Amino acid sequence: MRLEQSIAQFKANPSSENSQELLTLLKESHYFILLHPAVFQDSLIRQQVEKQIQQKKLENLPILMFHTKTQAGSIFPVFTSLEELHKFPNQSSYPQIEVDFRGLYELIQVHPTIENIMLNPEGDSLAFPRQQFLDRFSSAVQGQLIEAHEFPSEFKANLEQGVRKAGTKVIKALNKSALHYPEISKIWVLRQPEEEKFSWLLVLESEIPPQQAHGNLLQELLVQTNSLSGAMCYTSYSPILEVLDNFQPAYVRPYKRVATSSKKEKNKAKKKK
Q1: What is the DSSP track for 169-183?
Q2: In Å, what is the CA distance from 86 to each residue of 5, 51, 89, 93, 120?
Q3: What backbone torsions phi and psi does residue 207 show, to the nearest 5 degrees?
Q4: To which H or E segment does residue 234 belong?
Q5: 127-154: per-residue pLDDT in tens?
Q6: Which end of the chain is flanked by fewer CB atoms within 10 Å, N or C?
Q7: Helix (H, G, I), strand (E, B) or coil at 244
């Protein structure tokens, strides 16, 4: 089934089955986005935009947005196919780019002026408020979990401590969130140069096997630092162990001292006195 058909089917019958099918297709699809007409009119701007797209630097991309009398806030039009794109008024006047779902998510994430996302505004449209879109699909774009055999030697050589770069506020928030996972005893926050595949690496020491929920910690780090890329691995993956000797953990599980029976008896005696 095509995404456009799934949208129409969901709007006609928003059942859990249709909802799940729609979400799956949304994550698997590619999208067309319009840019400001000035990109066509100025060759220098066009060169800068082309370079931005090649380098995947999406922060200052001059995307097209519009306002309506019935919708509060700015609207970011997104098209699920060329057929839907051609329905947009004067679409030939606007430069266009194609992105996958991750690219779309990251574009919305780094453009705070986007308040609403509207799929196929001239067709069977589907709208999302910005935060609802980011929250609902965060799990689909979480940083990658690195397996042992994928851990490249150049990654190990380039790693550096990331605590200072993240900042005190971010590390405090991460420590607070980590308390919800009592099985995690330590967390290292590391970085590598921006031109590499991942800019952040979160390393967890856990007393149980890897859990999908642990990805929330990485996602929080990426959101808090306004970053697009990150990865996560565990100390059970041997290639990371030799690296960790050079770094201090950003989080260490608090140690709770348990009173012994003799101490408890002494405390009771003091209270009686």
Answers
A1: HHHHHHHHHHTT-TT
A2: 17, 26, 8, 11, 10
A3: -85, -5
A4: strand 231-234
A5: 888 888 887 776 555 555 555 445 555 5
A6: C
A7: helix
Alpha helices in 89-237 (DSSP H): 101-110, 130-136, 153-158, 163-166, 168-178, 215-224
CB neighbour class for 272 (10 Å; exposed up to 12, middle 13-18, buried from 19) = exposed
Residue 69's identity, in one-letter code, is: K
CB atoms within 10 A of CB 62: 16
178 neighbors 251 (Cβ within 8 angstroms):
yes
d(CA 123, CA 215): 36
pLDDT at residue 270 in the model: 57
pLDDT 10s digits, 194-227: 545 557 888 999 998 877 678 778 878 877 777 7
pLDDT at residue 195, rounded to an integer? 47
d(CA 19, CA 212): 22
Task: Report the C-alpha gap between 170 and 164 in whole angstroms.
Answer: 10
Per-position DSSP letters for 79-101, written without gaps between them: ESSHHHHTTSTTGGGS-EEEEEH
Instruction: Pick the most confident of 4-18, 80-94, 181-195.
Output: 80-94
